[in-house]
Amino acid sequence: MSPKKLPLSLNVICLKLLSNQLIHALSDEEGLHQAEVQEYMTPSTYHTLQYLLNEILGLINLDASIRFSCLQVLLREDVKRLEIGIFPRFYYDKILETISENGRGLHHLNLKGVWARDYPELLSNLLTNTRHLKALIIPHMADDSVINSIINLKSLVKLDISGEACYTSIGISKLNSDTIRILDIGSFGKPNLCQDCPLSGYELMAEIIKNLPNLNVLKTYSFTGHALLHLYKDDHNFKTKLTYIHTTDCNLDILNAIANTCPHLENIHVNRPQEKVVRELSKIPDLRSLKLTKGNGDEFLSFLKNAGEKLHQIKLNHNKSSLIDISNFCEYTPNINSLEFYHMYLKFSNLDSFYVNLQKVQILYCDIDDTVVKSMLTNAPFLKSITVGCSIQMTDGDMFRLLGECTLENIEELLFSEARFLTAITVELLADNCPKLKVLGSLVGWDITPDEIDALRVLISITNTDLTLWPVAY
Ligand SMILES: *[C@@H]1O[C@H](CO)[C@@H](O)[C@H](O)[C@H]1NC(C)=O
Questions:
Q1: Which helix H or strand E contains 259, and what residues bound it?
Q2: Helix (H), strand (E) at residue 224
Q3: Closest-lying ligand 1 atom to the alpha carbon of residue 324
Q4: Taking CA atoms, which of 151, 153, 206, 256 is between 20 and 30 Å from 332?
């Protein structure tokens, strides 16, 4: 049986009640009750204010004027975490001013959803006031003056200025920090950071890497390998603390530079590698997680034979030109716990091979037959989550036989997007037999009518079962 729902904690029930009351009290245009509400909330801890703020700002369908009122009333100097959510243009400057005034204690600020690039002065001003920020998320917004203010944030660990650049190459090359460990910058697939660049994008990126000596994770920018080659050519002893990078069009020279400059690298996305690169990925000694886009299947297998033992996570994308037998992976990757395939051509031939540590598998837009799905279910005894986003032919009878072969006792989430022959019988069968199953679907792609889904939902609800049928609204 699927697990039972636990009652909500008193704490959560109170906060939900309070958030409804607040929305109600602040729902007039004139803000008549703002002062009263603020006074009422004065004795509450910052935890409470923060919870209510993020709960209410997260309701994107709630009228923007009510959300803004809540921001004005609930944001206090000791609130640490703020995710602003999506607002209409009319509110941008007001929001920046409110945070400037009342958000001085913020540690985490996410401004995604407020197009602050039209107000660089207000944004710089805000950053001058929020001196304790550790995480700042402002994609598509930073210009040179904003970068200048960022340099003065002495506790900043995580910075997201990805997307279109309003800064110049001179402005961004001033970015320097001993504290930044996670940087999200640039746009996917684009070698250049900004328009005006007199240097190549790689050289500019190399300079930024040099200015951030404690950087661990460099996200979005897709040509980090080229930048590292530049640094390596300059100085063969140059070392970074990078643990994750994304590299495109990697050749053997670049791979060599990566291996030499990044002794701590654990996680890499390799896109369109040139010949022999995939085979040589074993040069990266501590690789735990590999995402390979448009890579060579044969080279990948020989890499696994050499170095698969340490891998925990594999993502393979975009190569349907050769058939990959994923039962071959088992032997070489005993520690794998997550497998993802996107646009691949897969089979599972050796039914005696087992994934002993696999917990999560995703197969999207792949060419497969049902054996692949059945084998993932029967030959991965600790599997918690399976998502199959391609058409499968499995029937209720197949599912019945499958449950005779394996218990699926660890499965929590089973999502098949297109299973035209599975019916309500399979839903009941799985709900009755899988003790941890909490998410099941997606029933729009199954042979089930809306009436049947309603009936199943009633059954789930009256038995207080903790099982969500996807899609949630259908
Ligand atoms: C896909 O892999 C095959 C070998 O397994 C290789 O010949 C081919 O070049 C690869 N395709 C792409 C787009 O990388």
A1: helix 252-261
A2: helix 224-234
A3: 5
A4: 256
Tally of helices (H runs) and strands (E runs) in the chain? 17, 16
Q: CA-CA distance, 277 to 293, in Å (whole number)?
A: 12
62 within 8 A of 56, measured Cβ to Cβ? yes
Q: Establish how many alpha carbons lie within 13 A of residue 244's alpha carbon, considering only the half-sphere containing its beta carbon.
A: 14
**Ligand 1: centre distance to CA 297 (Å):** 6
**Where do the DSSP E strands lie in 195-288?**
217-220, 244-248, 267-271
The helix/strand/coil state of 382 is coil
Over the stretch 251-273, which tens digit does the pLDDT of each residue have? 999 999 999 999 999 999 999 99
pLDDT band at residue 1, thresholds of 50, 70 and 90? confident
What is the CA(321)–ligand 1 centre distance, in A?
A: 6
Q: 325 alpha carbon to ligand 1 midpoint, in Å?
A: 14
Rounded CA separation 381/110 (Å): 40
Residues 364 and 387: their CA atoms lie apart, in Å, by 8
b or e along 62-72 (b: 16 or more beta carbons within 10 Å of the residue's beta carbon)?
Answer: eeebbbbbbbb
- Smallest CA-to-CA distance from 150 within 115, 185, 197 is with 185
Residue nearest to atom 8 of ligand 1 (CA): 296
Looking at residues 190-212, what average pLDDT do you find?
91
Nearest alpha carbon, ligand 1 atom 2: 296
Q: Which residues contact 14 (CB under 8 A, 6 or more apart)?
A: none
CB 119 within 8 A of CB 144: no
- Cβ-based neighbours of 404, under 8 Å, separated by 6 or more: none
Query: Ligand 1 center to residue 243 CA distance, Å?
Result: 27
Q: How far is CA 233 from CA 124, 200, 205, 227, 343, in A?
A: 37, 15, 15, 10, 36
- The whole-angstrom distance between residue 398's C-alpha and the CA centroid of its chain comes to 34
Using only the alpha carbons of the chain, give its radius of gyration.
26
Give 29's pLDDT tier (boundaries 50, 70, 90): confident
How far apart are alpha carbons 163 and 143 in whole angstroms?
12
Q: At residue 147, what are phi and psi to the nearest 5 degrees? A: -60, -40
| Region of 348 on the Ramachandran plot (φ > 0 left; ψ -120 to 50 alpha; else beta) | beta
Dist. CA 419–CA 348, nearest whole Å: 19
Please name the helix (run of DSSP H) or strand (run of DSSP E) that holds residue 128, with its range, or none: helix 120-129
Provide the 3-class DSSP secondary structure of residue 186: strand
Residues in contact with ligand 1 by the CB-under-6-Å rule are: 294-298, 319, 321-322
